[in-house]
Here is the input.
Amino acid sequence: MATPKKKAAETIDYSMEEKIEALYRLQRIDTKIDEINKVKGELPLEVEDLENEVAGLQTRIENINGEVEELDALTKQRKEEIEQSTALITRYNEQLKNVRNNREYDSLNKEVEYQTLEIELNEKRLKEYAADIKAKKTAAEEAVAMCAERTIDLDQKRTELETIDKETAVEVAALKAEADQMRAKIDERLLSAYTRIRSNARNGLAVVTVRRDACGGCYNSIPPQRQYEVRQSRKVIVCEYCGRVLVSDEFGSEAGAAAT
Here is the structure.
């Protein structure tokens, strides 16, 4: 029995006046939600920026530590090469004591010179690696300290944002439920237009009333014939200047009376 009732509810054909009124009420609800979000101020953006900064610092720290590990590996390799060269020099010097001709003597001396140069080169590289490691460790320490500071700031901002969300959660949930009821009365094409206009409007107003013969959004004068069509609520009328949907001031009065 529940299924037929649901289908019947889904096929309700609302009049244009009911759709326009629902659209106006949806605008009022969205405006209230906007006002609640204004209480958060820049907190959501600040939280997002801090999250990105902390993530960036953590990646930087990981990259620096990876570079230090590579330099440590190279340092170990160069030290091993120095040990090998030193061992070869010792062996060549021993062989020099038993040379039998000048050619053998010159060849061994060249090997000793070559290995000596290799040691000097590797020692130079070791000094460079040590300087790089020191600089990178300093940079890593600075990044760790900065990351710790930003994490504290992030935790504080998150706590502020969560507090506001908790304080307004019930009200926002009720408003969103009411907004869903209004959307159910509006066809998709009109809802799509509403969303588009609202996203382009600086103050988020896509639906405004005609007051004192003027558009409630841009305050440009509305011709009498246009005002009459708006009051009839037989079709959607938009302001020719700002593109907002115009509704009768009676909707605003009714909404205000209902609120009081």
Summary: Residues 54 and 151 are 7 Å apart (CA to CA). Residues 1-9, 256-260 have pLDDT under 50 and may be disordered. DSSP finds seven helices and four strands in the chain. Strands lie at 207-211, 214-215, 237-238, 245-247.
